TrEMBL record:
Residues 81-315 form the AB hydrolase-1 domain. InterPro entries: AB_hydrolase_1 (IPR000073), AB_hydrolase_4_sf (IPR050960), AB_hydrolase_fold (IPR029058), ABHD4 (IPR012020). It holds the Pfam family Abhydrolase_1. The active site is at S158, D284, H311. The keyword Hydrolase applies. It comes from Aquisphaera giovannonii. This is Putative hydrolase. GO terms for molecular function: monoacylglycerol lipase activity; short-chain carboxylesterase activity.
């Protein structure tokens, strides 16, 4: 597989910038090993205290957000909104890890459960999908109202990365107040290509897992709201089947292809005026590197493609700032550099990292 030269991590350039190139351990060079290990290994203590809030979406649905406020945060200090991927939620380990890292830097962090996901199940009759940027826009408005004058970063992972990049492109015409930058990890910017890639024999386990989860969640949703009727999922054996039969029909698309074309971030990237960082692994099992071929990344939006890393894996051979989670540090370091935050707080072994991150656990508020 050829990797676009502009997207390839250049060891010398990154070293000069203080960013070590991603290098996996010899036993974790395989893309599937990185993907699986990234999810299940080196999880550590990822409990991040947070207060729970609900946001009214204006159509009868609500979504749930978890917010963590560092004890030394002041009005005007930076804030961030994190958006999870398909089959995930705000409490996923990678979401909690990133939230903890950013909070340690002094960043106010909100973790968004997409419509109906995680703690937001039962609050919405509708479902989230890869192009539903209106919900993210409302969540950012909510965060902006709580942190007036603060620069806000939008960071998305996998499907959440597609949402983040699509919204960044839309913001060039319809600005999002307070939105300062955008970050995306392993975003499926060409949804049709990803849907086709995941059906390959070597990826069938991923497709089966996602499809099984989607089928269960739909049945659970229709059980919670019986007036939705009984879902017809007969013959749905792949993510594409599901999008054809259910996602498209419930969200105003004529078919899966229409959904993929109108929701993919690929066409929006060139319009982006926000600075940011997009990280992808050339060996991602089900989001092909070819999705980025020919994409004109604007100068403020950096694009880095590592040779290894799998899907949201990036478990490195050597620790960086005391952490083997290369992607976590990469995002935190990029934001620390952009906002001029103390670099010593990036180090997991630094004494100040032992400070407790406080919030208001158990608080349950609703906001229009």
């Amino acid at each position: 597989m050829s990797i676009p030269l502009r997207a390839t991590i250049d060891d010398r350039r990154e070293a000069e910038a203080g960013v070590p190139p991603f290098e996996p351990p010899p036993w974790l060079r395989n893309a599937h090993a990185q993907t699986v290990a990234g999810r299940y290994l080196l999880r550590g203590d990822i409990r991040v205290p947070a207060s729970r809030h609900e946001i009214d979406l204006g159509d009868g649905d609500r979504l749930c957000v978890l917010e963590t406020i560092p004890p030394d945060w002041s009005r005007g200090d930076p804030a961030a909104m994190l958006v999870h991927g398909l089959g995930s939620c705000a409490r996923a380990p990678y979401m909690a890890r990133i939230a903890g890292r950013l909070a340690a830097l002094g960043v106010r962090v909100a973790r968004m459960n997409l419509r109906g996901a995680g703690d937001g199940f039962g609050l919405a009759r509708g479902i989230y999908h890869a192009g539903r940027t209106g919900d993210v826009r409302l969540a950012l408005a909510w965060l902006g109202s709580r942190a007036p004058g603060s620069p806000i970063a939008l960071a998305g992972f996998s499907l959440g990365g597609n949402l983040a990049l699509k919204l960044a492109g839309e913001a060039a015409v319809d600005p999002v107040p307070g939105l300062d930058c955008v970050l995306a990890a392993n975003p499926p910017v060409d949804l049709a290509a990803s849907a086709a890639t995941i059906t390959r024999p070597q990826n069938r386990l991923y497709d089966w897992n996602f499809t099984s989860w989607l089928r269960r969640e739909v049945r659970r949703l229709h059980g919670r709201f019986p007036d939705l009727g009984r879902p017809d999922l007969r013959g749905v054996r792949s993510v594409r089947d599901f999008d054809q039969r259910y996602t498209a029909a419930r969200n105003g698309f004529s078919c899966a292809d229409d959904y993929y074309e109108r929701s993919s971030a690929r066409a929006w990237i060139a319009r982006t005026t926000l600075p940011g960082l997009v990280v992808h692994a050339a060996d991602d099992p089900f989001i092909p590197a070819e999705s980025f071929a020919g994409v004109a990344f604007p100068r403020p939006l950096e694009f880095e493609m590592t040779r290894h890393g799998g899907h949201l894996g990036y478990l490195s051979r050597r620790p960086w700032h005391g952490d083997h989670r290369w992607l976590d540090v990469r995002f935190a370091a990029w934001l620390a550099d952009r906002w001029g935050l103390p670099a010593d707080r990036l180090d997991l072994s630094a004494p100040r990292r032992t400070r407790r991150i406080t919030a208001l656990p158990g608080v349950h508020t609703r906001h229009a």
